């Protein structure tokens, strides 16, 4: 691993690192020379249960490769608990340099049938969890005048998807959180970026094929293994990305994407002000060609990964 990354001896917290994308990132961090705090509570995809086994497996893999790791089984979805995750890094390794907010659960339901409990559970882990862990790390980052946050957003939030109002809202909220961190902490040398990962994992493994063509496509999608997202996460955490902050990226097998961000694209002016009728008669026709079509992530990323 090239020393251009500057991660040798640094300490990285990776939440949800007991498997999938998080495990891939934790292993790649260790490969780059970082000491890793593996945070995972070992719950099901829906957030039920709990076990230290997934984190222990990741730790064993890191140590087998000659790396150093510690385990935190504290939940990201509670403020006091999230502080313990950061304290684990400080107690074990004496510092914290990188936070990767990857932990997540899914409770997919079509919007008009979504239970408020399922809304709260998903928002608590993804959005609140990203805030809690980031906020806990903000003080040591500020004191040492350096640090990097890598947050996981999703094309479900950036673009849209069916049955994921809770997940989509949380993931788009993470984009706003990341941008605010980037703005507020730039003067302390702290960076914050987002990744929209593509991976065949337990988060997507529930997709069912109804036709032979869909089954064939799923087999191609399975090539997007979780660890294909890890190089981008490690890069964004590294010194090689010291000038990159407030951005949104995606990794899709062998493709990398940089996303645009919300900015005005058309404007109309009426000196005497607007009425609802004038908006209908003059503004709407001017805007109509530039309206964003309603679509899902799969409509935008319509080609198979290669």
Automatic annotation (TrEMBL):
Residues 10-206 form the Ketoreductase domain. SMART domains: PKS_KR. InterPro entries: KR_dom, NAD(P)-bd_dom_sf, Peroxisomal_Beta-Oxidation, Sc_DH/Rdtase_CS, SDR_fam. PROSITE patterns: ADH_SHORT. Belongs to the short-chain dehydrogenases/reductases (SDR) family. It comes from Hwanghaeella grinnelliae. Pfam families: adh_short (PF00106). This is SDR family oxidoreductase.
């Amino acid at each position: 691993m090239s020393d251009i990354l500057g991660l040798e001896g640094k300490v990285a917290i990776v939440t949800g690192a007991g498997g999938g994308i998080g495990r891939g990132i934790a292993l790649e961090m260790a490969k780059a020379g970082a000491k890793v705090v593996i945070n995972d509570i070992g719950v099901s995809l829906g957030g039920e249960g709990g076990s230290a086994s997934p984190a222990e497996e990741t730790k064993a893999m890191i140590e087998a490769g000659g790396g150093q790791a510690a385990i935190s089984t504290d939940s990201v979805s509670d403020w006091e608990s999230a502080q313990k995750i950061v304290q684990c890094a400080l107690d074990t390794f004496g510092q914290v340099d990188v936070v990767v907010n990857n932990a997540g659960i899914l409770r997919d339901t079509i919007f008009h049938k979504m239970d408020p409990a399922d809304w709260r559970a998903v928002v608590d882990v993804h959005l609140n969890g990203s805030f809690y862990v980031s906020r806990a790390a903000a003080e040591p980052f500020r004191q040492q005048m350096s640090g990097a946050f890598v947050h996981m957003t999703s094309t479900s939030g950036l673009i849209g998807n069916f049955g994921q109002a809770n997940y989509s809202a949380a993931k788009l909220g993470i984009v706003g959180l990341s941008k605010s961190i980037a703005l507020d902490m730039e003067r302390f040398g702290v960076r914050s970026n987002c990744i929209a990962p593509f991976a065949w994992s337990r988060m997507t493994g529930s997709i069912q094929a109804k036709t032979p063509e869909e089954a064939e496509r799923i087999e191609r999608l399975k090539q997007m293994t979780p660890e294909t997202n890890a190089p981008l996460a490690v890069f964004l955490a590294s010194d090689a990305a010291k000038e990159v902050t407030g951005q949104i990226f995606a990794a899709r097998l062998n493709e990398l994407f940089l996303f645009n961000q919300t900015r005005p694209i058309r404007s109309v002016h009426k000196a005497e002000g607007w009425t609802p009728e004038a908006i209908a008669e003059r503004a709407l026709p001017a805007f109509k060609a530039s309206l964003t079509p309603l679509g899902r992530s799969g409509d935008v990323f319509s080609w198979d990964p290669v």
